[in-house]
Design a protein that fits this description.
6-stranded mixed beta sheet; alpha+beta; Immunoglobulin-like
Length: 207
């Protein structure tokens, strides 16, 4: 009997909660969150050893209400120990038949001996009137080589959106595009072993 009453009370509270209007503060926050949805490019956090090749993914989270036809991003980083090699299309770019173009500008060492590079990446749809914009997911893989004499160091890759265009004819510029930086963590072989040893040991003990 008591359990039946409790169930009816819970059901009544659920119905009342569904019928009550959303508090003004929550409603305003929801509207603000929806209105602030913008496309965003993101890099990741990866690690590599001296002399190794590392692959940095570049991904896109589009705004469904404002799809993009093209996007150009500059990525700046300290290049003494990180050498750019090439870019390959990610799965999302391949499925959308998007073009990926890159160009590299390397600066001279500063008074501390640090060299900085700017990697420009352009993703675009070649069709004159595409129905869909650049897709969600991995646009490109950026292949770098870590110098053999690199010391343990965190290398930040900072992206800046140079330009973006929508699907209009002619295309219109999209000003508000977010960008999330990435990090390459250069670590010694000993540090990599110490980090992975517990997982490797666990694998062998459980298989």
């Amino acid at each position: 009997m008591r359990k039946g009453i409790q169930k009816r009370v819970v059901l009544w509270l659920a119905v009342v909660g569904a019928l009550l209007p959303m508090p003004p503060q929550l409603r305003a926050a929801a509207l603000q969150s929806d209105s602030e949805q913008v496309p965003r490019v993101s890099l990741a956090e990866i690690s590599g050893n001296p002399g190794a090749s590392v692959m940095m993914p570049l991904s896109l989270t589009p705004d469904p209400k404002n799809p993009l036809r093209s996007l150009t991003v500059d990525i700046e980083y300290v290049s003494n120990s990180l050498i750019f090699q090439k870019a390959s299309r990610g799965l999302a770019a391949e499925l959308a038949n998007a073009d990926i173009q890159t160009s590299l500008t390397e600066g001279k060492p500063d008074d501390k001996g640090l060299k900085r590079a700017r990697l420009r990446i352009t993703a675009s749809l070649p069709e004159p009137n595409p129905k869909d914009g650049l897709p969600h997911g991995l646009l490109a893989y950026l292949l770098f080589q870590v110098s053999p004499d690199a010391k343990p160091f965190l290398i930040t890759l900072t992206p800046t959106v140079v330009s973006a265009n929508d699907l209009s004819t002619p295309p219109k510029a999209v000003a508000n595009v977010g960008a999330k930086p990435g990090v390459v963590s250069v670590e010694s072989l000993d540090a990599t072993y110490d980090r992975l040893a517990p997982a490797v040991a666990c694998f062998f003990f459980t298989h």
